[in-house]
UniProtKB/TrEMBL annotation:
Family listed: Belongs to the MSOX/MTOX family.
Name listed for the protein in its UniProt record: FAD dependent oxidoreductase domain-containing protein
Gene3D superfamilies assigned: FAD/NAD(P)-binding domain
Limits of the FAD dependent oxidoreductase domain: 33-73
Originating organism: Albula glossodonta (roundjaw bonefish)
Biological process according to GO: L-lysine catabolic process to acetyl-CoA via L-pipecolate
Pfam families: DAO
Protein keywords: FAD, Flavoprotein, Oxidoreductase
GO cellular component: peroxisome
Superkingdom classification of source: Eukaryota
The keyword Oxidoreductase is assigned to this record: yes
Species lineage: Eukaryota, Metazoa, Chordata, Craniata, Vertebrata
Gene Ontology MF: a single term: sarcosine oxidase activity
Length: 99
């Protein structure tokens, strides 16, 4: 991975430092589900646990609606959006992924 950096004060060596920092930090690991969709659901065995996971770096775009439906779930309300595509049970019949 390479990263081009513009340095406003090259005489102070900031360009070298920024390049070393960018190259020495490994890329972030994305957390995704096998089907690349979120999980928004109650835990299958413990109904007092609400799960919101698998956002893989693009979940920030959905923050307001995800917050709303997770709040609704936690309050025992009927979610204002259809959460069937985001149920954790969709993975029950899948084999475990290989590492």
């Amino acid at each position: 991975m390479s990263l081009a950096v513009h340095c406003a004060a090259p005489e102070q060596g900031c360009g070298r430092h920024l390049r070393q920092t960018a190259l020495s930090n490994p890329p972030a690991r994305l957390q995704v589900t096998p089907d690349h969709h979120f999980v928004l659901d109650r835990h299958p065995s413990h109904s007092n646990i609400i799960i919101g996971a698998g956002f893989s770096g693009h979940g920030f775009k959905f923050g307001p609606v995800v917050g709303k439906v997770l709040c609704e779930l936690s309050l025992g309300l009927l979610p204002s959006h259809d959460l069937s595509p985001f149920k954790i049970q969709r993975f029950q019949n899948r084999s475990k992924p290989r590492l």
